[in-house]
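lol ok so funny story. i was supposed to be doing the assay writeup but got distracted and ended up predicting the structure for this chain instead. priorities right. anyway since i did it might as well share w the group, maybe its usefull for someone
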Amino acid sequence: MPLRKDKILVIGASGQIGVELTLALRKQYGNNNVVASDLREENPLLKDTGPYVSLDMMNKEMLHVQVIRQNITQIYLLAAILSATGEKNPNLAWHLNMQGLLNVLDIAREEKLHKVYWPSSIAVFGPSSPKINCPQQTIIEPSTVYGISKYAGEFWCNYYFNRYGVDVRSIRYPGLISYKSAPGGGTTDYAVEIYQEALDHNKYNCFLSENTYLPMMYMPDAIRATLELMNAPAENISIRTAYNISGMSFSPREIAESIQTHLPDFNMLYKADSRQAIADSWPQSIDDTVAKKDWGWKPQYDLQKMTDDMFNNLNVTKTLDQDPS
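and the output, tada:
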């Protein structure tokens, strides 16, 4: 069970994962025990739910001061430059993704923090990795700077655990889909954008080809997986690089068909761009046997259940936005 006396710092709290994970942590630990931070303005969904500080993870001294001042015992480091955005500025992506992690790991070592969470990604896999049911241990040759930084980061996490005893844990997230916060420049972003475009315009121009299968996960499953991993006893954690987890795999054509169960006239157009090559280098499905064995991971959402929930929530949001009161 988590220690109720823990004080948590979430770095990158205004991002796609950060918003929902911060809210879930506040529900679990209490609002005042979870400090949200970001370089960006506080996300509206976080306002008045708990403390928020403006923080640059690249400024190690400022970060260290906040950890001491706030009596932080756990850090969730979510800030990163993602796959598609990273290819536009590889040097910046490498520097930010790597140095931010090293700053956090170093502070965790010095301050003897209880736990650190840092997300990895399916971007660590490359063209030589198995396409179907890609296993936990396999050939990993990432083809993007984002994937390279995540794979290097996995080994830094493993190193700090083995060398210094830092209890750092990680998950290789697949593509994540959410209605609460916007995506952040990833190759799987189409699966988020498509729902809003379907509601607003009844069509979507997809930047991937129709039969591009990719591993995906609905955000409630991703948040639950993260909390379950972090709450698991340390003796159950056998992977100190990053765990494979699986939710569902689908193609743009299949997600379009699931949307047509709600909007029969929805029209999907396909025009692949540079992100297609990134998608083609990744597995189509993931084997998460180790996560299931170690900490009981099991997804709750499939494609249709996710689509139904997305439309239910997006329709509610749209109705509220249109309400003049």
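The chain is about 40% helix and 15% strand. The longest strand covers residues 34-38.
back to the writeup now i swear
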